[in-house]
Amino acid sequence: MSGEWKARRFWTSSQLREAADGFEITLDGRPVRTPGKLALILPTAALAQAIAAEWDAQDEIIDPNTMPLTRAANSAVERVTPQFEAVANMLAEYGGTDLLSYRAEAPEALIRAQAEGWDPLIDWAATELRAPLRITHGVLPVPQDDASLLKLRAEVMALDAYGLTALHDLVTLPGSLILGLAVLRRRLDAESSHALARIDEEYQAENWGRDEEADEAAAARLAQMKNAERFWLLSRTA
């Protein structure tokens, strides 16, 4: 039995061209479509150029793992656009159980590290997003103000499908809507957001020793968050 079938490069070069509502990529003159055969219309030339570069970088065998921007754009068109409200609502719900609201009860060093890292973001949410959040020590749920949750939901709903696609990884990977929105608003970069989300894990590693598998998983999450951040920025760059 031969190995599983893999897609092979079938084009010589890629180009981008203007479309009715943005830009599209062509491979030897044929427009790139999503896996579901939908038109892949990109909002900016910068994003289209970056995705075209991913296609140009492919060798004889196409490796989707080296095409994160292409995968994100496909997701924006095929998954996020047709169920925009459901995705937005799912992400907005993170505000009600945001990582930054839940603090350790002990030890004092961890409590202090969380406060130093997270309090500035809680303050930022209250002032810039007009969405103050309560914090608690322990795991018991803390109810958040309905007005704050509505403000956060409005922030999410104001995005387009490309922004919502980027926000998905920037929220679900760290477990915080505030961290995700902070990256979109350039209050943080993806690397800083990832580090803030891992204060607990880093404390445990420093005191009890590192775990190679956990470190590898963390590195993979960081790479995904950086790709999401880049996707967001390119989708906003003319």
TrEMBL record:
Keyword check for DNA-binding: no
Domain of life (superkingdom): Bacteria
Presence of the UniProt keyword Protease in the record: no
Keyword field: Chaperone, Transit peptide
Entry similarity comment: Belongs to the ATP12 family.
Protein name per Swiss-Prot or TrEMBL: ATP12 family chaperone protein
